[in-house]
Amino acid sequence: MRLRWGLIDVLVVLYALIPVLWIVSLSFKDPSTITDGALLPTKWTWSNYAGIFRNDDFTRGLVNSIGIGLIATFIAMLFGTMAAYAIARLTFPGKRALIGFSLLIAMFPQISLVTPLFQIERALGLFDTWPGLILPYVTFALPLTIYTLSAFFKEIPTELERAAKMDGATPFQAFWKVIVPLAVPGMVTTAILAFIFCWNDFLFAISLTSSSAARTAPATISFFTGGSQFEDPTGSIAAAAVVITIPIVVFVLLFQRRIVAGLTSGAVKG
Amino acid sequence: MTAGRARDERRLALWLCAPATLVMIAVTGWPILYSVLLSLQRADLRFPQDQAWIGLSNYTTVLSSPHWWTAFGVTALITVVSVAIELVLGMLVALVMFRTLVGRGLVRTVVLVPYGIVTVAAAYGWKYAWTPGTGWLANLLPAGQAPLTGQWSSIAIIILAEVWKTTPFMALLLMTGLALVPEELLRAAAMDGANRRQRFTKIVLPLMKPAILVALLFRTLDAFRIFDNVYVLTDGAHDTASVSITAYHNLIGGLNLGIGSTMSVLILISVAIIAFVFIRVFGAAAPR
């Protein structure tokens, strides 16, 4: 029995890891052996990594990705926490409409926004700027933050706030001094999920930018053409793919339990 | 006193919800309206002076275009096949994560790796894996095969990339559903002589129906807007464009705002129909 489960486990692990192993291996292959088709490198090298960090566009893309991702996450968390608290704790007209509306956005086909946003942002001078990407990222991260956070808030006992209000705290004080500190673990999880969403986006990143001023790392990679026109970009693309993936994978693995809770809280509790 | 409290609470709630609501409306509401307006106009950035109201003729153009219907068919095929595979595979992975006796923590952790990978990065991995000469998977095929240059083989690879990346998410949603099945019920059924298969189809599946429907709804709508994998793997070549890719090419490559917006509106309508069918016909409960 244990042996059989062990074998099944191995299958699942191989499923998850072999494609990753392949990209990592490709990124360490020496240019002369990159087309040998072997699963593991026969000649190891760091040169692909050295190459992409000599490339200003890629480092610039990383800076854009980190900056845009962090700012968008921060704004989405701020607004999302406020709305989620209201949904979890207060009675007010339009609550169901707000929930329905954010659900609608969560399922919205992003391409349907790309055409009009492309035009609107060009008119407003937001095209190819950080705010031009931060705006759609905040919008699409908000449903996620509202859902996950309101699920986390609902798990905090109401008695705590009632006690605080008894002691003379205003609703805002009850929220800020009692709930927020208790909700920090849930907020960290939600922030990670929101950041992963921004970091992962590709469609907005290639449609609403036209230069390295705001182009994020995944979009930059898709423009790699190799050091010179005679050089194949395979090694550089593989190395860049590993660089943008590793931080997220490390995050996900460190916060594994919380992320599972966060990913499933909004969807199934309902 | 209580009335005052209730009014305070309402006022606080409105203030708390206002920023999020305003941002969501500003970034989606106006653009949607704008794209409906654009879809009724001849608006081509290459010929800006020709802009004019032309009623529904963009819709006739798109709906009578074989390219659009090919893209629509390809998207529907990718959606149905990948969601079906993900459901089965996700259920198996969920059962493993839930029931395994050894290394449960390890399995639950490792399964999150595909979720964490940037879609574009993973897509390049698959692309090179199937490139003749470079790829370890292409080398397993008979010599001279280039799977990313044929329509069917390309679609199969796109589905593979999509399934690999999103099965863990499906598995997590299903695992939460599994956790809601009471252990005692299964034990009682086993006592009464129900075998493993009967317990799964007669008890586990019906109890998991809400979780399955929500997972299917999420993934179907998500798969229907597939973009990243197609862009990297084929960029729509060999008749493999999804509707998102086609709309993107009309905008960025063609600079045709009218046609691009028309496609945007049509995609939006398709998504609304899918959601409606799930919620009304299958009774998927919208998460509250």
TrEMBL record, chain A:
GO terms for cellular component: plasma membrane. Keywords: Cell membrane, Membrane, Transmembrane, Transmembrane helix, Transport. Pfam families: BPD_transp_1 (PF00528). It is a multi-pass membrane protein. Coiled coil: none annotated. The keyword Transmembrane applies. This is Sugar ABC transporter permease. The chain crosses the membrane at residues 7-28, 66-86, 98-118, 130-153, 174-197, 237-255.
Automatic annotation (TrEMBL), chain B:
The chain crosses the membrane at residues 12-33, 68-98, 105-126, 155-182, 203-221, 263-283. Its main location: membrane. GO terms for cellular component: plasma membrane. Keywords: Membrane, Transmembrane, Transmembrane helix, Transport. CDD domains: TM_PBP2 (cd06261). It holds the Pfam family BPD_transp_1. SUPFAM superfamilies: MetI-like. The keyword Ribonucleoprotein does not apply. PROSITE patterns: ABC_TM1. It is a multi-pass membrane protein. InterPro entries: MetI-like, MetI-like_sf, Sugar_ABC_transporter. It is found in: Cell membrane; Membrane. It comes from the Bacteria. Residues 72-278 form the ABC transmembrane type-1 domain. The keyword Nucleus does not apply. Belongs to the binding-protein-dependent transport system permease family. PANTHER family: GLUCOSE IMPORT SYSTEM PERMEASE PROTEIN GLCT (PTHR43759:SF1), TREHALOSE TRANSPORT SYSTEM PERMEASE PROTEIN SUGA (PTHR43759). This is Sugar ABC transporter permease.
